[in-house]
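A reminder from the course coordinator: this example appears on the midterm review sheet, so study it carefully.

Given structure:
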């Protein structure tokens, strides 16, 4: 092989190796657990008391007995936060 063909081969190898590595990034993103994606209570202004008639137990994101789909930590059924969404049904 000449120097030029060796350089081209190395370049192709580098491109293929980088493409394989880049292709695995979406797979890594899928492996992140949902708990890692939750927001802090402070970031959503969570409070243990209701806001008017709005309570976590009436929110579509609440998971009984004391969790939320989007907010981290223990959540009171009588609490409230600024991402409250009326439960459908």
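Designed residues:
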């Amino acid at each position: 092989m000449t120097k030029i063909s060796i350089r081209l081969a190395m370049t192709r190898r580098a491109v293929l190796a980088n493409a394989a590595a880049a292709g695995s990034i979406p797979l890594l993103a899928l492996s992140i657990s949902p708990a890692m994606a939750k927001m802090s209570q402070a970031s959503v202004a969570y409070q243990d008391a209701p806001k008017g008639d709005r309570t976590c137990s009436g929110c579509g994101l609440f998971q009984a007995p004391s969790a939320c789909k989007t907010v981290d930590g223990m959540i009171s059924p009588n609490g409230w936060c600024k991402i409250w969404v009326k439960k459908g049904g």
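The longest strand covers residues 62-63. Residues 3-23 form the longest helix (21 residues).
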